[in-house]
């Protein structure tokens, strides 16, 4: 049986940003830090300004003289507070996290990922889940308080599993969703249901999506995925390549077993952004799916 571990940290999991949780409820410290704080502006489409050095950060005082409710406190970098805020209009070279994530340093990757996740949550949480009353930001943007009863709510993260299914040797199962072009494939994933463990979710999702029973479910690693507010929990499992595949839930158009040499060739060719013409294209480097595939392909046959 060929087991493997991740050969590198998933790109969006490598944050070195100091989140400085102890400052979130210290209003005076946040106010004092605002004077020379940096501000990351994010559009509603999740894009930011970048230049040759990476993320473009503005002085927070360009937004206001003191911290405002709309801004979220990301943490501290090199002694300076860092905040983020949604903006309707932004000029310059704009990119989203998928486009620039692989090219950012560890701290900037953490800033951008956290900013998108937090701001997306705020945008969808302006009213209490209990009674529908308005809520307002608190704790530097890390919670919201109901204006009617003071109930406090925290950022929601939806867990999803993603699993590389292999045959215990040199074949891996890759699938294509209905909306994808014929040559784009990835490993299988799905959201965790209420009352369900990660491992149970793996076996259920794979059974639902391709009709395959798997065994030896093993944890690999995880990665935040703020599209809009998920975390991907990576696994590997073993399946029988001779078992029939069925696609009953309508999400998967087709799935096939590929060899390790097939995957290595596809990884060398590029990713989903590559020009058409390849027999097989795999997800880009920002996805934990690619990290898992690279790690599996690195094993000896």
From TrEMBL:
GO MF annotations in UniProt: metal ion binding; NADH pyrophosphatase activity
Superkingdom of the source species: Bacteria
Catalytic activity of the protein: a 5'-end NAD(+)-phospho-ribonucleoside in mRNA + H2O = a 5'-end phospho-adenosine-phospho-ribonucleoside in mRNA + beta-nicotinamide D-ribonucleotide + 2 H(+)
Enzyme Commission code: 3.6.1.22
Recorded family membership: Belongs to the Nudix hydrolase family. NudC subfamily.
Alphabetical list of NCBIfam families matching this protein: PRK00241.1 (NF001299)
Name of the featured protein: NAD(+) diphosphatase
Organism: Antrihabitans stalactiti
């Amino acid at each position: 049986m060929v087991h493997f571990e991740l050969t590198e940290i998933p790109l969006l999991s490598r944050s070195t940003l100091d989140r400085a949780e102890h400052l979130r409820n210290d209003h005076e410290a946040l106010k004092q830090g605002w004077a020379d704080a940096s501000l990351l502006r994010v559009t509603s489409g999740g894009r930011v300004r970048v230049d040759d050095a990476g993320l473009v950060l503005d002085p927070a005082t360009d937004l206001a003289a003191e911290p405002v409710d709309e801004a979220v406190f990301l943490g501290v970098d090199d002694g300076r507070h860092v905040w983020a805020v949604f903006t309707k209009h932004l000029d310059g070279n704009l990119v989203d996290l998928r486009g620039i994530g692989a090219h950012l340093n560890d701290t900037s990757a953490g800033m951008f990922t956290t900013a998108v996740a937090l701001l997306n949550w705020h945008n969808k949480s302006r009213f209490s889940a209990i009674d529908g009353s308005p809520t307002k930001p608190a704790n530097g943007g890390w919670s919201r308080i109901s204006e009617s009863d003071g109930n406090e709510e925290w950022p929601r993260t939806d867990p999803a599993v993603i699993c590389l299914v292999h045959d215990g040797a040199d074949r891996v199962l890759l699938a294509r969703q209905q909306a994808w072009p014929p040559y784009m494939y990835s490993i299988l994933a799905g959201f965790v249901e209420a009352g369900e463990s990660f491992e149970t979710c793996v076996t259920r999702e794979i059974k639902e999506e391709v009709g395959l029973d798997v065994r030896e479910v093993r944890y690999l690693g995880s990665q935040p995925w703020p599209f809009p507010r998920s975390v991907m929990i990576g696994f590997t499992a073993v399946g029988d390549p001779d078992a029939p595949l069925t696609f009953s839930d309508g999400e998967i158009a087709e799935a096939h077993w590929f060899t390790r040499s097939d995957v290595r060739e596809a990884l060398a060719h590029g990713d989903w952004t590559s020009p058409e013409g390849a027999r097989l294209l795999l997800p880009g480097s920002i996805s934990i799916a690619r990290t898992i595939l690279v790690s599996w392909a690195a094993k000896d046959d």
